Amino acid sequence: xxxxxxxxxxxxxxxxxxxxxxxxxxxxxxxxxxxxxxxxxxxxxxxxxxxxxxxxxxxxxxxxxxxxxxxxxxxxxxxxxxxxxxxxxxxxxxxxxxxxxxxxxxxxxxxxxxxxxxxxxxxxxxxxxxxxxxxxxxxxxxxxxxxxxxxxxxxxxxxxxxxxxxxxxxxxxxxxxxxxxxxxxxxxxxxxxxx
Length: 195
Hints:
- The protein is α/β, with parallel strands linked by helices.
- It has a single domain, classed as Rossmann fold, CATH 3.40.50.
- The protein is 35% helix and 14% strand.
- The protein is built from eight helices and six strands.
- The chain has helices at residues 33-42, 54-57, 63-79, 113-122, 136-145, 159-164, 172-177, 189-194, and strands spanning 5-8, 46-52, 86-90, 130-133, 149-153, 167-169.
- A six-stranded parallel beta sheet has the order 3-2-1-4-5-6.
């Protein structure tokens, strides 16, 4: 049985975007984000992070740094009642300074690769899913993948992103509070079984 997910961009949605956040000491959950994610999970959504991490390609931090931060983030969210079903990242950038990651790819948003991979691995129905991002590239990736609803969270959404999104809110917490994600009150059996 397929499930539905809320795909979450990381920097600017889950955490405050301080610019190339690659170490736990620089990571700060966005105000209200953890509670919003817990509410979504309780309402029957799978939580999936999809994030461009060009800081790896640029040499600002390593893949190991990123994985250590991700492990800590997942543990903190699980302890808060908001476990992640998956975290998918793109370490590439065409102009990267680390040769192994300096490439064009199908996973760097606005390409849909991260979303499509998550959907295949987790058995997700994209048309019933939602993406919450903070940039036009997030919305473009969601549309290219066939995600059913796109919500952009940004204090000042750019015109391109706002035109692509179904709704705009100042934060993930505000989007959940105002019902923009339309969470279900019924938790599908497949979701209950996986928790």
